[in-house]
């Protein structure tokens, strides 16, 4: 197990450095052209990866953008940088939404009471032998 650990760590470092080198924009690369850095990292896994991490990428421009090295606790997360008034409130915390639910519930209760009253009236008419359409049975 201890023999495999350094090999796995080297492989992980190499893969990460290679992918980072491939995805880094051309304007953030220092000292050598991007193609040369890719070749160095690809053919010299340990030395090339360490060289890429130390000297290949300009990390100061990444800090200014907020990606992938956040400059502050909310860097890179624009939803935390929005003004408080524009934040989206969860429905169960929104008083307007809760009030609209209460109004809908009242309207539905009233409609249900009307339907029940109409149903009782029609049942009563049927018991008395009247035609629900307005005429008497005969």
TrEMBL record:
It comes from the Bacteria. Residues 98-125 form a coiled coil. The keyword Cell division does not apply. The chain crosses the membrane at residues 35-55. Residues 12-57 form the Cardiolipin synthase N-terminal domain. Residues 63-84 are annotated as: Disordered. The keyword Transmembrane applies. It is a multi-pass membrane protein. Keywords: Cell membrane, Coiled coil, Membrane, Transmembrane, Transmembrane helix. It is found in: Cell membrane. This is PLD nuclease N-terminal domain-containing protein.
